[in-house]
Amino acid sequence: MMSPDDFYEWHDEPRQGDIVLCGVSRINADDRHSPAQWESLDAHFLQVDDAWDAGKPLGIAAGIGLAMVVTHDCQLDKEWNQRVRELQNGGMETEAAEREATNDATLDRTLVVSPLVDPTELRGGRGNLLAGKVIGYLPVPHHPDNLVDECVADLTYQCTIDRLDVVKVASISEAARKQLRYALIQLDALRTADLGFEVEAVVGRTIQKVEVPARDPLTVRIQLDDGNVIQLLQQPGTPDLDKGRSGEFFSHGPRDS
Amino acid sequence: MSPQLQARPAHRHDEVDMGGPWSILPIADTLLERRSSTTTRLGMPFVVPELDDLFAGAERMTGAVMSWTRQFWQTYISSTESGITYASTPRPVREEVQRLRDEIARRTRLTREQIARAAGVDRRSMSAWVKGDATPSADKLERLQILADVVRDIDATELGRSTEVLLSRSGGQDLLDHIAAGRLTHARSWQSLQGAAPSVTVVHRRSTKRPLHQNALDAYLKGELHPFGRAATIRPESDYEQDLSVADRLMPDEPVRRSRRGYR
Predict the structure, then answer these.
(1) What is the pLDDT of residue B194?
(2) Among A23-27, A69-73, B245-249, which is the least confidently predicted range?
(3) Which of A159, B30, B204, B249 is deepest in the core (most CB within 10 A)?
(4) % of chain A exceeding 70 in pLDDT
(5) B87: which DSSP letter?
(6) Which residues 6+ apart lie within 8 Å of B250 measured at CB?
């Protein structure tokens, strides 16, 4: 697990990885089962009797808790950006457009959070969970001001909430955000999300953008955060030795020369 | 012009002088339509291109819509010892829309999209009304006024519950849907609709353990924590675009694992 000094880093603006105090909820079945790790979050059970036309009730478990924002930064101000562009296209100055969009409380109301849970309540084993070895969980160290105990962000519980009902508790460093994004990718999309991260590890920079030029699809252009661009050339297939040139031709030139 | 009618200098709605002859209102009261428990208005707002037409309309005391332009005339009817006095204040339609929209937004937590939905339009159309780029039809403006009336009504009887009441659904529709569909009587009787709302049972469970969020909650209650706020970073449009057609080329295949016998 990262040290608190490496993990926590205050940022005023809302960002992916922020730790917030908010309400969370999930749908549950008639028997109101709560897994042990969510018991403190499931403080209230609501049953809407005729939510299903067939007379079946709808059960909702809800409560207050600490949670980590998993919505990407870009999504957090997507509607704001759209509104600013819309106003600019209508002839408004950039500054005025930003001000008007900022004052519009209806924009970007929702974000997705995952609650923080006590690792001792989970089956994965506290040690493994805090070491970040269990897919679906991100270890969170003790907060220097005691606002957050040592715990894990439970990425298997994701909940959409309203931005206006959220209190910011802490924000995290870029290194911690990388861990969060990696954990999210591994849980939700790609269990083998290694290549990009390995390239980042080798070059020691963050990849900002990857392009495959339409004119040259054998080339992959990787733009790094320091402005440098790595250009990868896909290895061509090895042609028949009798009829064509070998792979060595490209590295050493024709053998006969 | 009838000697009993006279035009009064324009005032803002909330600055109407109720002293002097304006304090005597028995006749006017009988002409006013009582729309809800908290608001009173004379029929529909009406528009007249010329002041003479205004007086003609006032003489008939019908308050009918005569024409619909960008000028919105707020009407007041009062009475004096000698007869009825008529006063009017021009208010651009866009100002009226903005006033109603802002009042509804202030009293509720409805979004502009939801307010526009009650008027039967989308947010952009309402925004165009406020900017003066477009003019709402009479029935759409009336819907907005009805929504404001209902909001004031709910506020007067169940303070703080207006958003909840407006969005509670019965028969698959909420109050905004009823107003948008022109079922205005239905909307005004929002209390009866509330009775038809689905019943909700709430069960509270007290945790035996100290919750993980207790310290943060204590800090919040002491006022040491602040709202989440909003993100506002200018980003290129391309940040919000995707091309799913490249997924097949760029995404690696998921590793194929052999299932254990009997496990699917």
Answers:
(1) 64
(2) B245-249
(3) A159
(4) 84
(5) E
(6) A212
Question: Measured between alpha carbons, how far is B117 from A220 in angstroms, rounded to an integer?
Answer: 47
**Do the Cβ atoms of B201 and A47 come within 8 Å?**
yes
Assign residue B141 a region (left: φ > 0; alpha: ψ between -120 and 50; beta: otherwise): alpha
The DSSP code sequence of A177-246 is HHHHHHHHHHHHT-TTTTHHHHHHHHHTS-EEEEE--TT-TTEEEEEETTS-EEEEEPPPPPPPTTTS--
Residue matched to tokens 């009293």: B107
CA atoms within 13 A on the CB side of B114: 19
- Taking only residues 157 to 186 of chain A, the set having a beta carbon closer than 8 angstroms to any beta carbon of chain B reads 163-164, 166-169
Helix and strand element counts for chain A (H, E):
8, 11
Long-range contacts of A204-209 (CB under 8 A, 24+ apart): A206/A178
Q: What is the mean pLDDT of residues B236-248?
A: 83
- Give the model confidence (pLDDT) of A233-251 as tens digits: 765 554 444 444 444 444 4
Is the torsion defined by CA of B205, B207, B212, B213 positive or negative?
positive
Q: B4 pLDDT exceeds 50? A: no
End-to-end CA distance of chain A: 57
| Chain B residues near residue A98 by CB distance under 8 angstroms | 232, 234
Please answer whether residues B22 and B16 qualify as being in contact, where contact means their C-beta atoms are separated by less than 8 angstroms: yes
Residue with tokens 């911690």: A176
Return the SS3 of B12. Answer: coil
Do A83 and B123 contact (CB within 8 A), yes or no?
no
pLDDT 10s digits, B53-67 = 444 444 343 333 333
Token pair listed for A4: 């608190």
> Do residues B119 and B178 make contact, with C-beta atoms less than 8 angstroms apart?
no
Nearest to A222, CA basis, from A250, A188, A194, A197 = A197
Interface test mutation site (partner A, options B230, B250, B251, max chain A beta carbons within 10 A): B230
Secondary structure percentages of chain B, helix, strand, coil, to 5: 45, 15, 40
* ipTM of this complex prediction, to 2 decimal places: 0.70
Angle of helix B112-119 relative to helix B123-131, nearest 10 degrees, comes to: 90
- CA R_g for chain B: 27
Tokens standing for residue A250 = 């490209």
A60, A27 in Cβ contact below 8 A?
A: yes
Stated pTM of the model: 0.55
Supply φ then ψ for residue A62, to 5 degrees: -145, 160
Gap between the Cα atoms of B213 and B216, Å rounded: 5
Structure tokens at B123: 């947010």
- Element of type H or E holding B149: helix B138-157
